[in-house]
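User:
Care to share a sequence and structure tokens?

Assistant:
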Amino acid sequence: MNLFPQLLILIGSVNYLGNNKSNEGPVPKNKLSNEEKEEIITVVKQEEFADLPPTQIVPKLADRGTYIASESTFYRVLRENKMQNHRGRSKKPERRLPESHLATAPNQVGHGISPGLVDL
């Protein structure tokens, strides 16, 4: 008895190892529509919200009685539209080493233990 043809049919009908991308599954019922995404982008671009992160935008809208989406959804939509970066007119902050921790020669930055306090 040759089982090879039945095995091929079985493998062909199953999403084998998850590499069949033609079957993406059903669309979630709560998926944002394009209009809802556009509304989020429009709100974020408003002058009063231009400098604020979603953690401040969503509560301000809630104080007005408006709910568009959650903070995480705002962040996701901003990432999808490559808008999740420094926004606003202020200069982007720079990371610098504190001058007190910058050594330009040997033994300039101590370890915090005074030589008179160490018992050997």
Remarks:
- Residues 34-45 form the longest helix (12 residues).
- Helices lie at 4-13, 34-45, 54-63, 71-80.
